[in-house]
Amino acid sequence: MRVLEARSLFARLIGLLGTVRHEHDSALWLRPCHSVHTFGMKYPIDIVMLDRNGRVVRILPSFRANQIADGTGNTASVIELPDGAVNAHGIEERHILQVEADAAFRPRWDALRNLFHWPVNFVIAFLWSRLVMASLAHWNAHHDPMQLGVLIHNTLLMLFFLTRRKSVRTSTLFRDWAVPALTMASAMLLRPVDTFEGVLLTLSGYIQYIGIAGMIFSLMSLGRSFGIVPANRRVVSSGAYRFVRHPLYLSEIIFYTGFFLGNVTLNNFMLIVFLLAGQLWRSLSEEQLLSGDANYQAYAARVRFRFLPGVF
Q1: Comparing C-alpha atoms, which of 238, 221, 224 is closest to residue 165?
Q2: Which of 30, 183, 39, 23 is nearest to 115 (CA)?
């Protein structure tokens, strides 16, 4: 049986997370290791715990997903085997196993993505809740109908993000994960303030209404194909996407420009600048990832402009 050795903290932390099944002819040797978990896995495995001399100190056959397996006081390493391997190889407690690694274990990208899936969801949901509380407070103080549009948009955004369709292909570049996450966080950190009255404030409101309408229309058109990281979750060419390739980003740029005109602070200005640059980055990185899809190639040939028809 081929043995893969996970010695680094990163490799041991991920382990078999993200895999569909355990390869029948391989074993994962985690060392040093005193306990393991099966959170995020979708199948049972056999677990064999060894002391420093290779003696079997504990066996957990057919160990189910989403549990923690604690070792004994002298557990030094753990072997994760396919379900049924313990019985097939006649492994019993107090046996001494001579284990030699064939290769170092290299975690799969899918595993890393699954590892951060729920933490990322939690952080985004937390930021969204903070925005909701700020919007409600502003509503109670000023009865501004704009806050209703903001809440609708961000609620749809959260709904489609948490129920997003599984991607056919997802970018593995760190920058393609970092920039979208920071861009979205920047939007969540914007705060309304009491500013001057006048024509500029009125213009700000109209621009925001246009942006809100566009964002809601774009999100409804995109549906469960929405995501933060560049990915192929099915090419959408209907609704708002009949006119430009990135109507959601365009609508957000319109909205946040209007928002800043009515809520002028240095903090909001810095966030808006980063947000605009981030949206441009996202549009280009998404197109680069989708460029290999024949459906997207046909769509891009039909809808030529990214943001403004006839301009860009």
Answers
A1: 224
A2: 39
Query: pLDDT exceeding 90 applies to what percent of the chain?
Result: 36
Fold that domain 109-302 belongs to in CATH: Four Helix Bundle (Hemerythrin (Met), subunit A) (1.20.120)
Closest CA to 192 of 240, 136, 121: 136
Q: Cβ distance 82 to 45 under 8 Å?
A: yes
Mean pLDDT of the chain: 83
Q: Is 2-104 a domain of CATH 2.60.120.1140?
A: yes
Confidence of residue 243 (pLDDT cuts 50, 70, 90): very high
Length of the chain: 312
Whether the bond into 247 is cis, omega within 30 of 0: no
Token couple for 170: 């997802």
Least Cα distance to 229 among 301, 164, 276 occurs for: 164
Supply the pLDDT for residue 140: 73
pLDDT value at position 149? 66
- Overall average pLDDT of the 140-160 stretch: 69
Decide: helix, strand or coil at residue 269.
helix
Rounded CA gap, 49 and 95, in Å?
11
Which two tokens mark 283? 């549009």
Per-residue pLDDT reduced to its tens digit, 259-300: 888 888 899 899 999 999 999 999 999 999 998 899 999 999
Q: Which two tokens stand for residue 179?
A: 């920039």
Domain with CATH 2.60.120.1140 in the chain: 2-104
Q: Where in the chain is the domain with CATH 1.20.120.1630?
A: 109-302
Q: How far is CA 261 from CA 172, 202, 257, 265, in A?
A: 37, 9, 6, 10
Q: Region 147-161: what's the mean pLDDT?
A: 70
Angle, vertex CA 152, rays to CA 148 and CA 155, nearest 5: 135
How many Å apart are CA 285 and CA 279, to the nearest integer? 10
